[in-house]
Amino acid sequence: MGAVDDYLATVSDPADRAALARVYEIARELAPDAEQGTGYRMPALKHDGKVLISAIRAAKHLGVYPFSAAAVAAVAGRVATIPGADASTGALRFAPGSEIPEDLIRDLVSFRLAEIDER
Question: What whole-number distance in Å separates Cα of residue 118 and Cα of residue 114?
Answer without folding.
Answer: 6
